[in-house]
Amino acid sequence: MTDSEARRSSALAPVARVDVLGVNVSIVTVDDLVSFVDSAVAGSFPVVIAAHNLHSVYLARTDSEFARFYQGSDVVVVDGWPVLAGLNRARAASGLAPLPSSHRFGSTDWIDRATALAAVRRVAVIGASSESSSAFVARLLSSPDAPEVLAIPGHPWSADRAAEAVERVSSFEPDLVLVGMGMPLQEQVVTGLIGHLDRGVIATVGGAIDQLSGTQSLAPRWTGRLGVEWLWRLASDPRRLARRYLVEPVQLALVIAKERRAR
Q1: Are 208 and 182 in contact (CB under 8 A)?
Q2: CA–CA distance, 161 with 38 (Å, rounded to integer)
Q3: At what angle do helices 159-172 and 185-194 cross, to 10 degrees?
């Protein structure tokens, strides 16, 4: 039995996973995820929350180490309209009703609620620039019942910084760890960290630290419900995101087609 399977067979109720686009995801809403965090914080082992969008699906289909990280995560949120669309196509083929847009959400949709939980008293934040990290921490501390926060900016990052982060976070004994860095770096950071924690929730949150801090523009939430958040983000930062949104989907389609021909 793997470490992940051992965790899922524990007292903490497992979250159902289903296959889509060659990866597997969890069927959860924001309410479900926040409830999971609330329960998992009180556990005696660390759990991992990840999220799949089309970018991570492409990486999982082309990088075996990256794929293993997602296979071993306890919850994998649907964080991308194409992933939800693929899931609903599979459900339709099986005669099941489509899932509503509430089953697709990003880290910015649940972080505020999770950090406000009474059970979450210590939060570690890894990633983003010093400016963005400081602004995000200030935002967390503005709450009357704010948790204690440990912040470790992600720029610049190195092997020495990674080792320092592991030492500082493990000594801090956090209830919740938010790791917001680019893929696959954030997954590598979590992999290096999880063996040094006895409990708590560790979540990969991508650019959520930058977005909630105000350093990056946060897409209006209605764009996610309509499946056009990617278009809003592309228009906001075309140089950084053009390859992800315009090239990688084609590459992923080619990978899937090649695998099907080989069967």
Answers
A1: no
A2: 30
A3: 50
Closest to 187 (Cα-Cα) out of 89, 49, 91: 49
Sign of the C-alpha dihedral, residues 124, 11, 83, 254?
A: positive
Tokens 């919740």 sit on residue: 176
Global pTM?
0.87
Residue 96: Cβ-neighbour burial (10 angstroms; 0-12, 13-18, 19+): exposed
Q: 215 pLDDT band (50/70/90 cuts)?
A: confident
Give the Å distances, CA to CA, from 176 to 93, 164, 200, 211.
38, 18, 6, 19
What's the CA gap between 211 and 99, in Å, rounded?
27
SS3 assignment for 148-163: EEEEECCCCCCHHHHH
CA-wise closest residue to 252 among 18, 16, 10, 20:
20
Band (pLDDT 50/70/90 cuts) for residue 148 is very high
Domain extent listing, the chain: 3-262
Q: How far apart are CA 12 and CA 15, in angstroms?
A: 9
Note the residue count of the chain.
Answer: 263
Strands, sheet with 148-152, edge to edge from the N-terminal-most edge strand:
75-78, 46-52, 200-204, 176-180, 122-127, 148-152
CA distance 140 to 149: 8
* Cα→Cα distances 226→84, 167, 211, 219, 263, Å: 12, 42, 20, 12, 35
